[in-house]
Amino acid sequence: MAINLVKGQTIDLRKGERGETYDLSQVTIGLGWDVRKKNGIGGGFLSKLLGGEEEEEYDLDAIAFLLDGNGKVANLGRTADINGRSIGLYEGDIIYFNSMRHPTGQIWLTGDNRTGAGEGDDEQIIVRLDSLDQRYQKIVFLVAIYHGRQQHQHFGMVENAFIRAVDHQGHEIAKFNLSGDATYNGMCSMIFAEVYRKDGTWKFRAIGEPHQTDSFVDLLKAGYTY
């Protein structure tokens, strides 16, 4: 049975509360969210029919930092010219929409959902924890609103946000729900959770730490680089 976590809670990903064991050979970290409806009358067709405002699209991006034993991103990748665009942090220890697969092939982002539409996970990062190189001791998962500050979008307008971990057999291990409230107003990024090695297994810690910046690079520079 999946554990519903509270902020700051840490669990063992491999073993459940009832002694069940989970297959960490491949774990899906799913992140989801909804944008709060305007005027409380619902979005889409119903909203238009009743004269309400059309639901605004939010582009939230899931990101992962792979950290070494010092809690830092050791490889910032390179700058690549792709389809005429200069892409930074490419093929380094950061998984994001412009560098979706780690060079080792052990962790990857499945896609870039640019609207948040649909049920279930909006974005997924899959990681093969059991075969991840020992030089990676921790993975931090965060979400940033693309151009959030420019478009005056923030986590105060996001609800039903969650992060969950699902093992290779499809068993949901844990889920952490964040309720959008006034404390998230003006906050354009969020550190959701981290997964780290401990005593030969992997731990999952729910964090829910908001930040004003809409750039994960700012968070990277603030504490995760040498």
From TrEMBL:
Domain of life, per lineage: Bacteria
Task: Give the GO terms filed under biological process for this record.
Answer: response to tellurium ion
Note whether ATP-binding occurs among the keywords: no
**Does the record carry Nucleotide-binding as a key word?**
no
Q: Which UniProt keywords apply?
A: Tellurium resistance
| Residue span(s) of domain TerD | 1-214
Which PANTHER family does the record cross-reference, listed alphabetically? CAMP-BINDING PROTEIN 1-RELATED (PTHR32097), GENERAL STRESS PROTEIN 16U (PTHR32097:SF4)
Q: Which family does it belong to?
A: Belongs to the CAPAB/TerDEXZ family.
Q: What is this protein called?
A: Stress response protein SCP2
Which lineage? Bacteria, Pseudomonadati, Bacteroidota, Chitinophagia, Chitinophagales
